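Now produce a polypeptide, keeping tokens residue-aligned:
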Amino acid sequence: MSSRLNPVIGELPVWRSRWWRMAALLLAAQVLTLLLLAAMLVNKQQHLLVELTLSRIEIQAADLAGTLRTGALSGLRVSEMEQLAGLVQRLLAAEPGLAEVEIVGFERAGASIVFAGRTASVGHRLSPAEWRAMAASEGFQHGMVGAQPTLTSTVRDGADEIVAGLRLYAAEAPLAAGTAKMIDALTAPLAVVAVLMTVSTLAALAWLRRHPDLRRRVLLFALAVMIAAGAAIAGQARAVLADSLQPAIASKLGGVADLLAGKLERAAALAIPLDQIPRLAAYFAEIVERHPEVAAVRLIAGDGRLLTQHGDATDGWIERAAGPALLAVAGDARFVDHRLLELAADIAIVALVAVLVFRELLAALLARLPAGNATAAADLDRVQELRLPLFLFILSEELSRASLPLYLASFAEPSAGWRPETAVGVAIAVYMACFALATPFAGKWTDRWGMRRVFAAGVVLSVGGFAWAALADAYWQLLPARALCALGYAAATMAGQRQLIVLGGEAQRARALALFVSAVSIAAICGTALGGVLADQFGSRWVLAASAIAAALGWLSYRRMSLAAGGDAAATRPAASLRFAELLRLLGRRRFAALMLGSALPTKIALAGLLFYLTPLVLHELGQTPAAIGRVMMSYFLLVAAINPLAAWLADRHGWRQSLTIAGGVVIGGAALLAGSGLLPAEHALWLAIAGLGVGTGLASAAMQSLALRLAAPTSDTAVTVAVRMLERLGSVIGPLWIGFWLAGSGASAALTALGVTVLAASLVCLGAQEHGRQTAANKVATSPLRSE
């Protein structure tokens, strides 16, 4: 390493240019992280402002909703409630954050607007999708119509039939003004922090050039600077956020006080003693729980006696007369701090991903520093340089992992017979099927047209698929879009693996493939978590756009690497392909077939069905955000990464290949069976199933591959590997459909139980995959990539 950090004089200009390039990349990574943090803070302010506005409107609309409900229970049609028109106008005049109010009447033929603030919309019939979405709401539901925040609610009659609906639109101008104020206040601090970060980074890099442990020090420094800069921006944002939200919080507290005071005044008017109202303390507790901005509510008698109180506060009370008493509501001074803490995990994920991405950038740059005359080191450097484009490309697919099922489910049309579970399962199965079918041909395409062309074609297909999916407005468009992504992923990853093998040569082949495994692992860990954060902050369409950008960046870095390496690397011989007849001959071997049916197939059924399909849908139903879903999915990859090396060592050192394979299946199946038993809460049960999947896969993956090579000897390693991969991808196709069948018919618990029984039964089949004798020809060390296919 020291010889590389002290280049000869003739290479000094190259050395300096590489150092400046390294500094530029480091600064770019830091600045982009800082900008993403600022964008997350601004987006959090937008969400809070919208939430406060809609919550305040909901309070103001309580009387209108109550009148509508009373009329419906009395048997009146919406058109017969003439007093509603005046209530609509009074509500619009009293609430400046309200842009429009629509009262909808439901009939068998559909729904139409009966009363509205703008008379031009009266009589407008709702589309089937609009009235179905409205009919599905229970209580007041917060949502969006385009870019406009909305509140929707339905009203039922005495026969529990939906007869009316209420739709309220928040005014966009006040919300946009609040966001603009936040951006203006953050711009100057952000610029100052960015300049200080740039100066300190350049100064530190100039000093770090004289030290041999370059990579470790640069990474530590990058992390320290980003933490310091992020803390400075977050600290400034806290004050700005509190200032920008204070009017909305005060207005919301006033609305809560008016609501409670109005109810108490009506009780006093009916001569009901306020201190004898049943469950008044419990009602105050419900108000505090429902509205996180409220810290305490109290009622004081006219003589100063405290009648009831829930919560504690020392100041900031908003008081309202309530008949002979005084009602007071206090705000939570820590409300903004509590909401900012919700971003802590997301910010940590962004920082982690930034460090790992910069690590890949740094490794690629160091690989291009002068290496003297060491040919082996130069070959490995070229391999290391190829890891960056592969990492970026694989990251493009992993980014959408946590949010894509939810995005697919949003396009389901119940009227067309598409349940959300079915829509998601079919789309994932289409992707997996296309990927499985394209993989055997991708090797032939690489041999025929060259690795660079095939990689470029894969990127073009993937970018097109991501862009099409991001712009889709109907479910049918998503299926060919995902098929394009699958074809592109198969082509690009196959071309990348082939080029790694060629660049590494015979001597460096194992290390070259290990670099590929590492790139896949890091991309899987980063992508699921970061994609969930981006989906939570900006929406699934923006995640798909980010995926397209990541794939394009992968091609740009691949092209630069390829040009620097002297063009397209050509294979010394065509890759061995697997013919269908050879696959049948392999499956005709009882022990090999038992291994495939007992481990390879069910493990991938569990991975695709449980992790990629069931987990996002169930967690979303439990109220988890895409960011939280991404973190849960990331835990699987972390478990596999932690356990797989130890399991591989045990399999090679002690020969426990079959034992570890069976143990992995038992852990996966047992955890799924226990999760589906109903003994644990739904979220804890899902955590258990995912933990079992991660531990079981880590135990079984390397051992299963090594055992497959032994049982299939003397068939070539390449043919056996292709056979295993094809059967695994068949399991990935079956998984979402199998779990989706149980989920749609019987629920998540039944799906987990069915999965557990399937994997445990398959583990019994795996007992027939025992080795007999020593097969030195197949004494290979198998490495388990964290594949997500």
